[in-house]
């Protein structure tokens, strides 16, 4: 029976890892559909290679920093207990790789390729696992301290803050250090529109992400005996709330409509295991409105050229999710309790600080040492021809 249980657990978390791995195709197609045609190939290649670099960084460094586990034993030792620790690494590596995938959308269309790979290695190897270990493995005793002060530790079941807020807030200094795409903002105050190049691909990416998110959230239980249908239903309700709110606030704009479910799912990750479904619905709806209004402000008023809006989508909606877990997870509002609003605010702010410092140091150092932006001619020609020497949609075919 023990062998059957460990085997089932390994299969359970492996299925989750595969579902979250598939989400990276969603990241790729969401970015591909949003950027201009001359940068579509770059979006596809960047997400794939970033994932590969992230896996190596997490295998050799990040997982050890977060959990104190390393894989430099014999294969026979690694395969014990049906290799559950190995597939757990696979599952959590797909989470870690979401950090550069999130950042990729913000810095699209003008960032250099190789410096971004260096940033990916450092962020996934050091910055992200530092905070991950604090929250999910009680590194440095921070969770115990919060519990002693507030009555409960910081609760982030599936990564609203650990993954999404951290990724979004790392992206913010990267976007600011890069600067806006050339021609985006005119000296006389006019804003040049850079509309999405392919709404069907944008929608496909959003759908792939939304479907995979149920592996992201539900499989965060990590063992079959802890699986919760409440997590699935709360994820569904937050997705619906985010969709309808963004559709209404965005006045039926397809870009907002398809990012709305993602905003809701980002926000519900933290408290999906303790909220009532109605609380999840409200959490998602608030996130949908938050994304629409902050994306509009950032782009049009503050001139922050965050191409996919990853700071409002992941950074702000993720932070809202961490706080929402403390509100709608309380018994007073139908939740399961065992959570402190003060601890949620403190943990969320801690994640933001780690992300901002980490992002500023990594991208600021790279900018100073090697440069992180394409030169004007390369940017004008597009990353596809500049970096990959091929375009996604050639204007004409060669006839022989």
Automatic annotation (TrEMBL):
Location within or outside the cell: Membrane
Annotated Gene3D superfamilies: Ammonium transporter AmtB like domains
GO MF: ammonium channel activity
Domain Ammonium transporter AmtB-like, residue spans: 12-390
Gene Ontology CC terms: membrane
Keyword Secreted attributed: no
Transmembrane segments: 12-35, 47-69, 89-108, 117-137, 157-180, 227-249, 280-298, 310-329, 341-366
InterPro entries: Ammonium/urea_transptr (IPR029020), Ammonium_transpt_CS (IPR018047), NH4_transpt_AmtB-like_dom (IPR024041)
UniProt topology in membrane: Multi-pass membrane protein
Family membership: Belongs to the ammonia transporter channel (TC 1.A.11.2) family.
Protein name: Ammonium transporter
Organism: Cupriavidus pauculus
């Amino acid at each position: 029976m023990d062998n059957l249980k460990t085997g089932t657990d390994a299969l359970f978390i492996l299925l989750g890892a595969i579902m979250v791995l598939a989400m990276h195709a969603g990241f790729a197609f969401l970015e591909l559909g949003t950027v201009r045609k001359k940068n579509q190939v770059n979006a596809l290649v960047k997400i794939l290679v970033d994932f590969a670099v992230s896996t190596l960084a997490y295998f050799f460094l990040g997982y050890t920093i977060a959990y104190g586990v390393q894989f430099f034993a014999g294969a026979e030792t690694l395969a014990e207990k049906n290799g559950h620790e190995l597939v757990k690494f696979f599952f959590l590596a797909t989470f870690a790789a979401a950090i550069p995938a999130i950042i990729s959308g913000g810095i699209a269309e003008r960032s250099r390729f190789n410096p971004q790979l260096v940033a990916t290695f450092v962020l996934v190897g050091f910055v992200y696992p530092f905070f991950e270990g604090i929250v999910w493995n009680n590194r440095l005793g921070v969770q115990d301290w919060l519990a002693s002060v507030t009555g409960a530790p910081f609760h982030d079941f599936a990564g609203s803050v650990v993954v999404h807020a951290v990724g979004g807030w790392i992206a913010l200094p990267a976007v600011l250090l890069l600067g806006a795409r050339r021609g985006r903002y005119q000296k006389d105050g006019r804003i040049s529109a850079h509309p999405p190049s392919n709404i069907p691909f944008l929608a496909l990416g959003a759908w792939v992400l939304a479907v995979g998110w149920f592996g992201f959230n539900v499989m965060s239980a990590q063992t079959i005996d802890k699986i919760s249908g409440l997590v699935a239903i709360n994820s569904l309700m937050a997705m619906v709330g985010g969709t309808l709110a963004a559709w209404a606030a965005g006045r039926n704009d397809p870009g907002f409509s398809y990012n709305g479910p993602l905003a809701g799912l980002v926000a519900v990750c933290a408290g999906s295991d303790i909220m009532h479904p109605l609380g999840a619905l409200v959490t998602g709806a608030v996130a949908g409105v938050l994304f629409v209004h902050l994306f509009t402000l950032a782009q049009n008023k503050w001139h922050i050229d965050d191409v996919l809006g990853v700071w409002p989508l992941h950074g702000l909606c993720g932070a809202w999710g961490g706080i929402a877990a403390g509100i709608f997870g309380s018994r007073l509002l139908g939740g399961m309790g065992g959570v402190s609003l003060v601890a949620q605010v403190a943990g969320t702010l801690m994640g933001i600080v780690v992300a901002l410092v980490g992002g500023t140091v990594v991208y600021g150092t790279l900018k100073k040492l090697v440069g992180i932006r394409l030169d004007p001619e390369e940017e004008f020609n597009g990353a596809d021809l500049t970096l990959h020497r091929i375009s996604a949609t050639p204007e004409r075919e060669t006839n022989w």
